[in-house]
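Milestone M4 deliverable, item 7.
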Amino acid sequence: MKLKHPWQIIQFIALIGFFILQPAYLRASSEPILTVNIDSAKFRSIVTAIPDIQGDTKNYLGKELRRHLGFSGLFRIMPPSLFGGLVSTAFYEFSKSSNISKFNFNGWRQFNAEFVVIGSLSGSSGRQTLHIQAIDLMRSRSLLSKTYKESKVGSLKLAVRHFADKILTDVTGKKGLFNSKIVFSAKRTKASNKHIYIADYDGSNAQQISSGKNIHISPSFSKDGSKVIYTRFDRGRPTLYSYDLTTRRTKQVSSQFKTNSGGNFSPNGKIVAFTAAAKGSSDLFTVRTRGGKAHKLLVGKGDDVDPAFSPDGRYLAYVSGRFHNPHIFRAELDWTTGLPLIKNEKRLTFAGWYNTGPSWTPASDKIAFAGYDKDIDRYDIFMMNPDGKDLERLTLRAGDNEDPAWSPNGQLIGFHSNRIGSANVKGSYQLYVMNRDGSNQRKLRVGFYELKQMDWGPNQSYPTTLF
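Output delivered:
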C-alpha cells in the first residue's frame, strides 16, 4: 500500500518565503494560456498576488477573490501586506480594452509572483463597473479579462465569483467550484436534533431544509443539484425523503421496509438506490424518484449497504459484509430495461478492518472511501482506482476521518473528522476539505456543534447577463 502523509498547510509570513519557491508546474502549450495539471504528482499551487480592487473603498471584492481562489487549493495567495505599501497606480497601467502592453511585469516579478489578478471599480452605487484581469506573469500575457456592469449582473459579489470560476476553468480545463453547494447532517447545539442543511461550497450561509423533531441523516444531491435525498426517522423507522430545492417541497420516496436509508441518485436523476432491511440483513434496492414499488438490486449473504452510482452510470460501488468484515465492491450495471441490473461484481478492497462510504470522482476515475485501521484505532480516508489498484492513504494521525465527497471539479475532497486541531485526539465531528492528494487539510467554519455526512453538489450555472 502506498502511503501519503497529509501535508501541513503552508503559511507565508514574510516576503523571503516567496523567493525560495520554484516555478509552478506548467504543462507546455503553444496556446496563449496558463495550464496546470492538477492530477500530476509534480503539481503544486501557483503563487498568486491579488491586491485590493482599485476604487473599492470597502476593500471587499479583492478579499472575495482571495477567499475563492485560495480555497481551491490551486493558488497560493500572497498576503497583501507583502506588496501593499509598494502598490501604486503604475502597477495598474493597463487599458479597459485589455491591452497590457504597459503592464509592469517586472514590478510584480520582484515579489516572485507567478500569477496576478488586478481590477478597478468605477461609477456610483447601483451602476458601478468592474474591470478585472488575470495575468500570467510566467508567460507575460493576459489569461482572462472581463468587464461587469452592476446594473446588468445585479451583484458584483456574484460577478467576482463568476470571474474566479472562469480562472479555475481556464487554468485547469475542468469545471468550476465557487457556485456549488454542500449538504450535510448537523446539530446546531449539543442538545439539538440532527437536521439537513445546505450551504455554499465553503460552509457559509448554511440553511436548514428539514423540519420537525425527527432525526435526519445521510443527505445526497442529485447530479443536477436540484434535489436532495436523505433519511428521516419516523417513529424510529428510517424512511427515505427527497427535498426539491426549487419548489422547497419534501416528498416521501420509500417507507416499504423496516429500514430505508442511504439513498443515492442515479446519474439521470430518475432512480434512487438505497439500503433496505425487511427482517435480517440489509440489501440494496432501487425505487423511482417519484416513489412507487422498490426493486431488488442486490440480495446476498451478509449486509450490503452504501450504494453509490458512478457519474458515468457504468458502475455501482457499495459496501458488503459477505466476507465478514465490510469491504468495498464494484458492480457493472446494465440499464437496458430502464432500471439498473447488476451484470457482475468485483471486490476492490482487501486491506483494512472496516471499509465504508465509497465516493466517485466526477470523472468516474477514482473512488475515495473511509477505512478503519485496527492497529491505530482510527478511520482514515483512502483513494483508489475503480479496479482497486493504486491505493493511497490521504489522512493519518488526525482523529477519525470519514464519508469523503468530491468537489465538482475533482480537485478537493470533503469529509468529516473529529480531530481537535492538529492533535490525534477526538472531539465533536466537523467538516473538512483537502486537496485530492491529501494536502492542505482545513476545517470549514460553519459554527455548529456537530457536522457529518457531507455531500457536494454540481457547480450551478450563472445568469446569462454575466457573459
